[in-house]
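Supplementary Note 3. Input sequence used for the single-chain structure prediction.
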Amino acid sequence: MLLIIKKYAKLNKMNSNNKTVFFKNNFEFLRLVCAIQVMLFHSNSEFINNYFSFINYFPGVPIFFFISGYLIFASYDKNQIIKSFYLNRILRLYPALILATIIGLILIVKIYSDYEEFNYFELIKWCFYQLSLGQYYNPFNIKQIINWVTWTLTVEILFYLIVPIFFINRVWIKTSVYIFLILSLVYWILFSKINNNLIYYMNLTPLKYGWMFMVGSIFYLNFNIIYKFRKYLFFSIFLIFFLIFNNQNNFLLKGTPSGNDLGFLYFLSLASFCFWFAYSVDIKFLRINFDFSYGIYLYHTLVINYLWIFFNKSNLFLIVFITSILSILSWHLIEKRFLRLKTKNLKKIKYK
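The predicted structure, written as discrete structure tokens, is reproduced below.
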């Protein structure tokens, strides 16, 4: 009996250690870096293009999708109550999205002020889509896309919706993930570049980018094994540079990413390096306890549009400065307050 108790205590200690190891990571810092990369890329600054064009080789959106697949699977695995899982996702995404929609609404009103006829229906329609599942939608008679990064939220939300399906039968979780990975890769390679309306809308679902999420999910489902050999993942950086200099242009080896278009092996190398960085670089200031990344990602294109439409110019310093201020205010005044309502957070946030 005493031996059984000791074994049980040892098992609990091992599980506790695994949980501590899992939560002690730099993913929030990586997301911040990704958001900054996307902002700098969209700034279209000559300074960035001339001196920091290498950031395009580390595209933020695909890394976001990898991290999302990893952390969202972990989140649902920890709390398999669908109601609270979806409530947590809503509390994380929508408060800031509502603010972004209001800011975009003012921009649309300004654009329409130069028109002879104000289209109230298009304005209401845009707001509805921004706050539902059609974030890609733009008022049809406005050429300037109001907030073009929000299309990824459509993909993210649809991914959240299908996550519980993978956990219906725990025996088949890994199998179903691999099946979806293969289906997504087949769609991406064979169909995603076909030019018609159906494919356009299908590309805004996890079918096209689902394989990126699934790679993150596979890393989570095999955490103990990958973590054990994590030090070897550092060498993926050499494969990244090899693919860049090799400059192939195919779905497997493409090493010159154009936006989110990159080869599978290149993406896998990026994901591996991110995992190594998240669990191997032990620097205290990287373990941030705030999340400005969502705000930077969500607001920067609105700031760019405001500068162009109101002042007819764009400036890298202003884009970075205004976006940073908006993101900080959004986090402290809006996002963090709503996160208090979340149940069973993966990582506790300090509230002052």
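The first helix runs from residue 2 to 23. The chain has a mean pLDDT of 89.
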